[in-house]
Each structure stands twice: as structure tokens, then as C-alpha cells.
Amino acid sequence: MPTPTRLLLWTDTPGAYLEAIAAAGLSNRVAAETLPRAQSPTPEQRATVEAMLALSAPPGLLPAMTALRWVQGLTAGIEGWLALPDLPPALTLTSARGTHRESMPENILGALFHIAKPYAAIAEDNRAGTWTRRMATPLNGKTLGILGLGAIGQDLARMASAIGMRVIGTRRTPGALEGVTQVYPPEQTSAVLEQADFVLLLLPSTPATDNSVNAAMLALMKKGAWLLNFGRGALIVDADLVAAVTSGHLAGAVLDVFRTEPLPKEHPFWATPGITVLPHIGGGHPERDKTVAKLFVDNLARFLDGKPLREVVDRQAGY
Length: 319
Fold this sequence. Notes:
By secondary structure, the chain is an alpha/beta fold. It is about 30% helix and about 15% strand.
């Protein structure tokens, strides 16, 4: 019998991954070890582990893991791995892209309802014991512009179109998409900004996208439009967004991701009327480890069989 492949599950919640390995019939093909995030791989693990599941790694670790050939990241965003100054060039890195689909489209739709419907204000009225007549704004007939029509954007487009919203957006690869009226290439982002009542950011963080949502881009948005960011915090020039909302050019913003998390108490987003700060709730849900585990064991079987892996990170593209 071949020697089992050494596998390290460097996570505080290894149960779902161990169960998935067993359910997939791979237990006898791997020697799986678990390690809490607060601990560092041992010298033996650094010398023998061939595959690893992890949230991140500190500089200096990966080059020391001399047998390591594949890392499965736990998140869709992989910029932390790519920022490592010593990321081995031959190491295969896969992301958890697509595993947020159960909750993120719903949470984004919830943000749209939060903007359009006065339930938050009514909850405050309830606490004060006051009856205040408030008006709900219809989403039906409004235009949602999605920058980054990937899997999550496409799921959201179907949901939004079902309640009568017109959906447009950008995507690197052309082609018609269900629920999307018009798909533009990234070079025509301005066409989306000029039409959309709500602009949703679902872009990855790359050298090309970081700081792209700046004063010039915000000025192209319709007066009174809203910005929603469920992509990456580095996309936005924070001071430019505060200025656009404060001036009244934008009605406001709902933000779920930030350059620094938790968002520092002194950050101006907290004190800017019209900006809602969410504590990065977009993709999380109670069963997410089980969802990521499905992708992981599929990739693990492929790795063991020498087949191409899913969601391999394109280092040149940055995601």
C-alpha cells in the first residue's frame, strides 16, 4: 500500500473537514493531522506535510515546509497569501471561491432592503414608543449595477430580477447571463455607474482594482445613488467615499469589508451619516465549514490522483 500523503488541517474547526475526508473514502490515503491556529507547525510537520488547509501563513513558514506542494485557502479572497514575500513559486494555491453562495446573495439583498425600507428606523421608533409614519421605497424598477458578475453576482442578479430590479454589470468574459439585462466589459464600467441606482462591488483585490473606487469613479455615479461593498476593503479610497456621501452626491453606502478589520473606532465611516458599517457578515453562516469541506475533499481527491485542482489561484491576475 502506498505511503499516505501527509495532510495538515491548520484550523480551529477541523471537524467538518475530517468528516468530509472520511465520507469521501480518503481516510486511508492521507495521514491527516490537525493544528489550532494559535500554534505553529512543528519541525516534523514542516519537513513532511505535502498538503495543507489554512486561513493564512506568516512570512518564513512556507519556504520551510519543504515537502509542501498544495495549500487550500479557507476564503475566496487570497490577497494575503499573494502578499507573502516568500510565497514559493512552485506551490499550488487554491481558494475557496464560490463557497459564499449560500449566504452572501441573501445578505446583499438584505442590505438593499435595509436601504429601501424603513425597518431600522421603525425599530428605533418602537424602542422610543413612538408612532411615526414612514415611507418605503420600491426596489422594483430600480437599477442594480454589479461590478464583478461572478458566481455570487449571478445568483444575486437572479434574485434581484425576480423582485423587478433591472440588473446590469461588468464581467471579464462576455456573454448573456440570466437575470442580467446588459453585461459590460470592465473597460465600460462607467456605463454601469451612470445608470445604476445601487452600485455593488464584488471585485477581487488586485493591483488593478485597489483604490479604483476613488473620487473620479464616484463622480460618475448617479446623484443620489448608493454604493455597496461586499468585495474587498482595499477597493475604496475611504476619504473619497466619505466626501462623496457628505457632499450629498451619493445618498449613502453599505460597507461589509474594510482595509482594517475590525474597523478602528476613530475611522470616519462610523461618524458619517448615510454610511452603514457591517461587521463583515457577507459570506459567513453556521454551516460554512461544511461547504468549504466539499470543495476541499474534491480537490484533495484530485490532488491524490494527480488531476487538475479546482479554483487554482492565478497569481498574475491576483485571484
